[in-house]
Specification:
The chain is an alpha/beta fold. Helix content is about 45%, strand content about 15%. The chain is built from ten helices and eight strands. The protein has helices spanning about 10-25, 35-45, 75, 135-145, 155-185, 195-205, 210-215, 220, 225-235, 240-255, and strands at about 5-10, 25-30, 50, 65, 85-90, 105-110, 130, 150-155. The chain has an eight-stranded mixed sheet with strand order 3-2-1-4-5-6-7-8, covered by helices on one side. Strand 4, helix 3 and strand 5 (about 85-90) form a beta-alpha-beta unit. The longest helix is centred in the C-terminal third of the chain and has 31 residues, at about 155-185. The termini are far apart.
């Protein structure tokens, strides 16, 4: 049973996960971050010690959760003596085996959500995707994950990569389109809040219908007149024109192929 945890990283995910674990009584004994400010801030929220010295990370802990940027993860873990403790990373797009050279017991603990440091989330509703190098370690992680989430899923690295791609489309790309919409509206003296009811309705629909069934708009209707009008209005913004045309073509092909 996991009772003591070290958090390696103090970013958005580490912050929200650390607080969620602390709230259910898990002992966060230490927080590591390269920056003192981040380490201190998270440690204060979970009543833990903190360090910016990677060689000072506590040994013999039940679980080490490595929540750092993908491109520095290998560099970080190779500097830590994990012994026989269980080590997990939290990345959607990295293989579990990136830990194999540095730990005997390892896996992945991937909460499938977008996180911000200052917006508390309800972890009970967040899917936690797990993988481990042994069946025993996987069962340990499942028991641990069920302490904070009602939805615990076993996914191997390839499945997790695919899920991460889908997340980029449904979250990152969609949010970028919101940002572009905001720019268009602000340049024409309108506020983004005008779109709130539309966004809420659209989001609500895809919780009840297939996104394909929920699709509306000129492209699914093949309303070429409206599409040409929109493209004309974007004539001074060639990059937006390209995005509009590309997505319009993709919608048409999906619904009319």
């Amino acid at each position: 049973m996991i009772k003591n945890v070290v958090l390696i990283g103090a970013g958005n995910l580490a912050t929200q996960l650390g607080v969620a674990l602390y709230d259910i009584g898990i002992n966060i004994i230490q927080v590591y971050s390269r920056t003192r400010e981040a380490a201190c801030a998270l440690a204060g929220k979970v009543n833990a010690s903190f360090t910016t010295d990677i060689s000072a990370i506590e040994e013999h802990c039940d679980l080490y959760i490595v929540a750092v940027k993908d491109d520095v993860l290998a560099e970080v873990v190779k500097q830590v003596n994990f012994g026989r403790s269980l080590v997990v990373h939290t990345a959607g797009s990295l293989s579990m085996n990136i830990l194999s050279a540095y730990a005997g017991n390892y896996g992945v603990f991937y909460p499938f959500q977008t996180f911000s440091k200052n917006k508390k989330v309800d972890f009970s509703r967040i899917p936690v995707c797990l993988e481990a190098n042994t069946e025993e370690n996987l069962r340990i992680l499942e028991d641990f994950a069920r302490m904070i989430s009602y939805k615990v899923i076993r996914l191997d690295s390839e499945q997790r990569f695919i899920l991460h791609i889908a997340a980029v489309f449904s979250c990152n790309f969609v949010n970028h389109l919101y940002a572009l919409s905001e720019c268009i509206l602000h340049e024409n003296n309108m506020g983004f809040e005008l779109l709130y009811p539309l966004i809420q309705e659209t989001t609500g629909k895809v919780m009840k219908l297939s996104p394909i069934e929920a699709q509306t708009g000129p492209s699914v209707r093949n309303d070429k007149k409206v599409i040409r009008k929109h493209l004309e209005l974007l004539k001074d913004k060639p990059e937006l024109q390209k995005i509009y045309q590309l997505i319009s073509d993709s919608i048409y092909q999906l619904h009319h192929s």
